[in-house]
Description:
The complex is a heterodimer.
Chain A: E1 17-19, E2 21-22, H1 27-39, E3 45-48, H2 51-55, H3 78-84, E4 94-98, H4 103-116, E5 125-128, H5 133-139, H6 146-163, E6 167-168, E7 171-173, H7 175-179, H8 184-206, H9 217-224, E8 226-229, H10 235-257, H11 262-265, E9 269-272, H12 285-296, E10 307-309, H13 322-338, H14 352-374, H15 382-402, H16 435-450, H17 453-468, H18 476-486, H19 490-501, H20 519-536, E11 541-547, H21 554-566, E12 569-577, H22 579-589, E13 593-598, H23 603-616, E14 623-627, H24 631-639, E15 642-646, H25 653-683
Parallel strand pairs in A: 1-10, 2-3, 3-4, 4-5, 5-6, 7-8, 8-9, 9-10, 11-12, 11-13, 13-14, 14-15
Helix pairs in contact in A: 1-3, 3-4, 4-18, 5-15, 6-8, 8-9, 8-10, 8-14, 10-12, 10-14, 12-13, 17-18, 17-19, 20-25, 22-23
Chain B: H1 5-13, H2 20-28, H3 32-44, H4 47-50, E1 57-63, H5 69-82, E2 87-93, E3 102-104, E4 119-125, H6 135-147, E5 150-156, H7 160-166, E6 171-176, H8 181-189, E7 197-200, H9 207-222, E8 229-232, H10 242-291, H11 294-303, H12 311-326
Parallel strand pairs in B: 1-5, 1-6, 2-4, 2-5, 6-7, 7-8
Helix pairs in contact in B: 1-2, 1-3, 2-6, 10-11, 10-12
Amino acid sequence: MSGEHPVRLPERDRPWMMRTYAGHSTAKASNELYRRNLEKGQTGLSVAFDLPTQTGYDPDDELARGEVGKVGVPVSHRGDMAALMDGIPLGEMNTSMTINATAAWLLALYIVAAEEQGVPADKLQGTTQNDIIKEFLARGTYAFPPAPSMRLIADMIAYTVEHVPKWNPINICSYHLQEAGATPVQEIAYAMSNAIAVLDAARERVGGGGGGRDPKIMEQVFGRISFFVNAGVRFIEEHAKLRAMSILWEELGRERYGVEDPRHLRFRYGVQVNSLGLTEAQPENNVQRIVLEALAVTLGRGARARAIQLPAWNEALGLPRPWDQQWSLRIQQVLAYETDILEYPDIFEGSKVMDALVAELLEGARAEMAVVAEHGGAVEAVPYMKAALVDSHRERIRRIEAGEQVVVGQNRFTETEVSPLTADAEGGILVVDPALEAQQVENLRRWRSERDQTAVDDALARLADAAGDADAEENLMVATIAAARAGATTGEWSRTLREVFGSYRAPTGVGEAAASLSTGELGELRDEVARLQERLGRRPKILVGKPGLDGHSNGAEQIAVRARDAGMDVVYEGIRLTPAQIAASALQEGVHVIGLSILSGSHRELIPAVIEALREAGVNAPVVVGGIIPEQDVAPLREAGVAAVYTPKDFDITRIMRDIVAIVGEDAERATATAAGASANGAA
Amino acid sequence: MSAGGAGLGARLRARDLSAAPAALNLLESTAPSHREQAAALLREVSPASLGHEPSGHVIGVTGPPGVGKSTLLSVLLHSWREQQRSVAMLAVDPSSRHSGGSLLGDRARIEFDPADREVFIRSTAAGDRLGGLSSATRSAAQALAVAFDVVVIETVGVGQAETEIAEVADTVAVVVQPGSGDVLQFLKSGIMEIPDVLVVTKADLGQVAVSALRDVNASLRSLGKRSTWTVAVSSLPPPTGIDELMQGFDQHWLELTRDGQRELIRRRLRARRAAALTDFTVEHGQRGLRALGDRRGAEALLAGQDPGLDVPALVATLERSLAAAER
Lengths: 684, 327
């Protein structure tokens, strides 16, 4: 027996690719960071772009205010890309770019930067995330409506298969679905449905499977699709999830796309483990969470990750510093080089428990995939899937609030010593210098003034023509690369396409959400709201929205749903709002309170700007803020006029609601007193 | 500048659009002192005070969920603004009132320039009455029509919705998408009242939309209805059919206002009286209505009033008769 099933591999496996999701401030600063990370033993790059770059705005755009260089690096043109990759041999590097709506553009800049280094496109290796459906569902950095977005993806796939053959043009993401509250079954089903939508669109574009140019081309297309998954702390089930995905993927390749080559049928995935479960309270506990989650994607050889990047212990506090990210890289290195994890064949093979768990997940996922198919596929089913995710997240929060799901240090075992990790002046996080934004704007203006404007105008006009052609004859990558060479900017490329494609707002999913808590659990809160209504004359009305470019709308959505369940009228404004928009809405809607959510670290700039716009519009309603707000920023926000600040440690939403009701009540009292005072003065 | 009801009414009469938010706050309030102020506001903008009907065109836009109403309204808003017409939109959200609360998500789907002072968008929850328009929405539409060139009331639904909206709008537009056979069935069976304008969206789908429009026209012909304006639109860039739709609205307005606004005056008078009857019944129930000699008695009473009176004034008249009857 032991001869047939050797206990050890003849040769220890090579470790997975190790990356750190990194980038901030400027291309130059990020380049220095990348080089340092590579020296520390990191084996690939994972570029974090800032939100303006991800959503297609230049640093001088009104919407970019406060966001430049915050959650990633700003890349506005080929000069920035060249600076970002300076001294890094692109022919040898494997670069993963978290870029979606503007993926075609950033890939074009990367190709041009490689050209400048003398590296031809067919030598380039890496991945563009490029998964737009999950942006509509969970992450919010979309730019164009669904149909043209899918065309861009299909064009990129068709282009790279031919010209950049080692590139993964798309990473189908289940990662963000879990961050938005997906259950394992939903994560599998929606990611696979998403992949089907992408592959169908690509098949149409490359003309594979019969009448097309090359009948075998779908083999290659299928083989280039990779996944980006998540792993939570329930790491046994999470591992089963990945085995289930491997099975479904192979099945899909064989049955739907006629793929036969086993190399192309292999389920390839990279991973960033769960951030949603990381806590602000006792943040050191996050280290063991991250380690356990890493086991989910490494333990079984049969479904092991190709590439891993781990979050940092302090993500719920703010942006991680290089040292925090080094700690996470070291976790990977200990796993790969100190443990014996890479010495064995698949350790779960033959496990009845694992097989049964996989079968259970497969059954659930197949049923849910059928529901998505009934809606007409993933693109058409976006509103359905979004509502389902909001609902799952609502249930998750309810369980944590009720103590049914234990979160150590947050809803149980909360007694703690003072942490020395957060004792420094910055509270143990990275603070990006706000002056960098002005500098970036200045650099951009210089770039614009020094380039050949006619060449840029011509290239953008060509792009508009190619995009506007009803038959979509031309692959948009061609005109995109030409515009990159000519020196166009990220904002110009996106604006050109927005003008042709139109803009889009994704469904919010909140309208359909079921009641968050039972009437009993809400009882007292509802009474308080009813008393407030009596006093106001109108049902308390709250505006909930997200200023800036941050698309992580979970928190805002859950607040909106709970406010509704508490008996308020909720104007849910969604994501990507300017201060002027928020002020206009608050005024026109006659709201009693404004709730803003920001997770991108731009609160110091954006919140005061919103308050200023509100007061200028004559809206005096109180403003409350939620998000990843470092402790040391709370006082300045209060000084700017914020009535209350809620952070991840305030996980009890009912308590937040009661606080808001009290704030509105006090505000009403103050207004009455002022009015009475004014009329008394008038009488005198 | 008074913030009281009469002051706000006077500002609306002077076409001061910035009075709209405070006016709506007042009209939506149920506090007794606010009710008095709201009545004063409506009195100020009533045809009796103005000497004529408010000049704004009140357009009701309704249709099933998901047919693209919000996108269409974004495009229409843009076109009206290009013609320099000021626009107020009342987005009535159908979201369930199971907790009393509501999620008003429509606003987020309508694109507008926040710096544009001549656009006003307000979301409200559907009335507590099943599917009906709240009294506040009806009075808001009437008040805003004094100051804005166009007042849009957007509701969701098929069947009851356009009957409700016909009680307050000068022009009713029903929006459907290709392949919505149920709407045709509703039309034929009489569940749905025939709208003034019927819009088929998603014309970018081509043949499907063309045949949907043909089916609609055939149904209307079989019902002997020829005056309904039908149009296929696409809100995707570049939008199509929008000019035609705007022409349809304007055409209907011309019909309403010819012969010294005869039809407009008739519709609005009917609407105010119906609203007064509804408000009275909500307040005093069937018992109150019986005391006035049932619906017909109440209607006769209303018919004897000054045609320019606003809704609260009409309700007050009914209440005085009720008090007299109960004495």
